[in-house]
Write a structure and sequence with these properties.
The chain is mostly helical and 512 residues long. It has 2 domains: 293 residues, no CATH class; 116 residues, no CATH class. Strands 1-2 form a two-stranded antiparallel sheet. The protein is globular, with a radius of gyration of 23 Å. The two termini are 23 Å apart.
Length: 512
C-alpha cells in the first residue's frame, strides 16, 4: 500500500469527523444518516488499508477520545474492534499472516489475564457490554479485546515500511485530539459527541476559586505528546539551542501548565528527563535539571510581579514558588481528601472485601445498590464522608494506581503487576539500546520513553488499573513488533547496534 493511499485513508477519517459535525449541527434528527455516512467511510477506509490496518491502533490511541456512541467506546477500543474484525476478513483472503510465538512478554500477558480471570470466576459480572465501564461485563470484555489486540500485534507479520508510518500517524492523531478539543470548547455539541473533556477544580476540596481553575485535559495531553515527540527526535538540552525546537519545548510546557494538572506536569518532566538521559547521558540530565529549577525560579519571580493564570499556578503548587495561597490550598485539599479515601479503603472492609486477590473490575452488587441510594441520603455516608467521596469509594475511582490495583486483583496482583512493569522496562531498554545510532532510534524512543517512566508515575503520582492494564498490553505488542521486525541484529549487551543492509533484510526477517 503506497503513501498516497495512506494519505487518502486518513483524509477520509478526517472527513468522517467533519461529517459528524456538519450532520449534528444541521439537524439533530439526522443521526441515522450521519451514522450511515460515517459507517460507509469507515468500511471503505479499512478495506483500502489492507494489511496495514493494524496502524489504526497507534493512530486512534493517539486520537484518545471517548465517543458519545452506544457503550461510549474510546477511540482505541474502536480501533481494536475494527482491526480484529477486518483482520478475520484479510486473513481469510490471505492478505495478512500471523507467526504465533510465546516469549517472555506473551507469558506475562497470560499471567495478568489469569489474575483478572480468577477474580471474574469468584465474582462473575455477566457478559453485558451495554452501559458504563463499571456495571456488567463491559470492563472484562474490553480487557479481552485489548488482550487479543496485543497478541495480534505480537504475532502479525509486518512490513518495514509500516514501521516508518507509526511516528507520523501518532503525531497526526495527537493534533486531531487537540483540534477536536479546541473546537469542542467553542462548539459544545462537537465536544460532547467527540468526548472532549473539561474539568472544574474539585469543589469537594474547598477550592476558593474553582470557577477560575477550569482545567483543559486535551491541552495537557497535547503538551505531554509534544514533549514526547521532541525527546524522541532530539536531545532536549541541545534542542533548546535551536529556535524551532526551543519553541516546541516552550509550547509543550505552556500547554501542560495551562492544562491545569499537576500529574501532567510530572509526566512532561519525566519525559524530558528520560529522553535527555538516553540522548545525552547523566551529565545532560544534571544540567537540564539545574536549568529547570532556574526556569521555575523565573516563573516564581514573574508570578510575584504579575500573577500567572490560575491553571498554571495550580499546576506548579507541588514545587516551591510564590503561588497564591488559594491555589495551594486547593491542591493540598485535593491531595488530603484522596489520602483520606485511600486510608478508608485500605483499613476497612467496607469497600474491598478480598484485599489479597481482589474484588474484580467494576461494582459489586452491594456497592451498586449503595450508590443508587446515595441520591436519597443527606449529610454523610457510612464512612463519615460527604456524598461525593462516598460515590468515589463505591465506584473505585481512587486516583491511585496501587489502591485501584488492590481493589481489582489484590496485593498479590499488585506485586505481579509491579514485576511485569519492571520486566517490560528492561526489555524496552534493550530495544532502545539496540536502535541507538540507527534511523529507528526515534521510533524506539517514541514507544519506549513512556514505558520507562510509567511505573514510577503509576505507583507514586497517579494511575488507574483499567487504563494501566490496557496500556501495558498494547505496549507489549508494540515492543514485540520492534523485537521481531526491525531490520537490526538482535540485542546483545556486548555488541553495538549496526544497521542491516537492505539486501540482507528479507533473509534476516524471515528467521524471526
Amino acid at each position: 500500500m503506497d503513501s498516497a493511499k495512506i494519505k487518502f485513508v486518513f483524509l477520509g477519517i478526517v472527513a468522517a469527523f467533519a461529517a459528524i459535525y456538519l450532520g449534528v449541527s444541521s439537524a439533530s434528527a439526522q443521526f441515522e444518516t450521519v451514522a450511515w455516512v460515517v459507517g460507509s467511510l469507515t468500511v471503505i477506509s479499512c478495506l483500502m488499508m489492507g494489511r496495514s490496518i493494524w496502524l489504526l491502533i497507534p493512530f486512534l490511541a493517539a486520537v484518545n477520545l471517548n465517543l458519545r456512541l452506544p457503550t461510549t467506546p474510546s477511540s482505541l477500543l474502536v480501533a481494536q474492534v475494527l482491526v480484529i474484525g477486518f483482520s478475520f476478513l484479510f486473513f481469510a483472503a490471505r492478505r495478512i499472516s500471523l507467526r504465533p510465538t510465546l516469549t517472555e512478554l506473551e507469558w506475562w500477558m497470560i499471567g495478568l489475564t489469569l489474575m483478572i480471570g480468577q477474580v471474574y470466576i469468584r465474582n462473575p459480572a455477566g457478559v453485558s457490554f451495554a452501559g458504563s465501564d463499571t456495571v456488567g461485563g463491559k470492563a472484562y470484555i474490553t480487557y479481552g479485546l485489548t488482550l487479543v489486540s496485543a497478541f495480534y500485534l505480537s504475532w502479525l507479520v509486518i512490513d518495514q515500511k509500516d514501521l516508518k508510518r507509526i511516528f507520523p500517524l501518532v503525531v497526526l492523531g495527537s493534533f486531531i485530539n487537540l483540534g477536536i478539543g479546541v473546537l469542542g470548547k467553542f462548539i459544545p455539541i462537537v465536544g460532547y459527541f467527540a468526548g472532549a473533556k473539561f474539568e472544574m477544580a474539585d469543589t469537594a476540596t474547598g477550592a476558593k476559586d474553582s470557577a477560575a481553575a477550569t482545567r483543559f485535559l486535551e491541552l495537557a495531553v497535547f503538551g505531554q505528546k509534544l514533549s514526547l515527540f521532541v525527546a524522541s527526535l532530539k536531545n532536549p538540552l541541545r534542542a533548546a539551542l535551536n529556535p524551532f525546537w526551543l519553541l516546541a519545548i516552550a509550547i509543550s510546557l505552556a500547554a501542560v501548565l495551562y492544562g491545569g494538572f499537576r500529574s501532567g506536569v510530572m509526566a512532561v518532566m519525566l519525559t524530558y528527563v528520560v529522553g535527555t538521559w538516553y540522548r545525552g547521558g547523566f551529565v545532560s540530565v544534571l544540567v537540564g535539571s539545574v536549568l529547570g529549577f532556574v526556569a521555575i525560579g523565573v516563573l516564581a519571580v514573574v508570578n510575584s510581579v504579575s500573577p500567572l493564570p490560575p491553571n498554571i499556578q495550580r499546576s506548579l503548587t507541588f514545587l516551591p514558588g510564590t503561588w497564591e495561597q488559594r491555589y495551594i490550598d486547593d491542591a493540598e485539599g485535593s491531595t488530603e481528601w484522596r489520602v483520606e479515601i485511600w486510608i478508608e479503603v485500605l483499613t476497612t472492609d467496607r469497600w474491598i472485601k478480598n484485599k489479597f486477590f481482589g474484588d474484580g473490575l467494576g461494582f459489586s452488587k452491594a456497592n451498586l445498590e449503595y450508590v443508587k441510594s446515595l441520591s436519597k441520603m443527606q449529610g454523610t455516608g457510612i464512612s463519615g464522608f460527604d456524598m461525593h467521596r462516598e460515590t468515589i469509594l463505591a465506584n473505585g475511582d481512587y486516583h491511585s494506581g496501587p489502591v485501584s490495583t488492590i481493589r481489582v486483583i489484590g496485593y498479590v496482583g499488585l506485586l505481579f503487576l509491579l514485576i511485569f512493569q519492571i520486566r517490560l522496562m528492561v526489555l524496552t531498554h534493550r530495544q532502545i539500546l539496540r536502535c541507538r545510532g540507527t534511523e529507528w532510534y526515534p521510533l524506539a524512543l517514541l514507544i519506549g520513553i513512556p514505558i520507562m517512566w510509567q511505573p514510577v508515575f503509576f505507583h507514586v503520582f497517579f494511575g488507574d488499573f483499567r487504563s494501566e492494564a490496557a496500556g501495558i498490553l498494547i505496549s507489549c505488542g508494540m515492543i514485540r513488533i520492534l523485537q521481531r521486525w526491525l531490520p537490526l541484529p538482535e540485542y546483545s549487551k556486548y555488541r553495538a547496534p549496526v544497521s542491516v543492509p537492505l539486501a540482507t533484510q528479507p533473509r534476516a526477517l524471515a528467521q524471526r
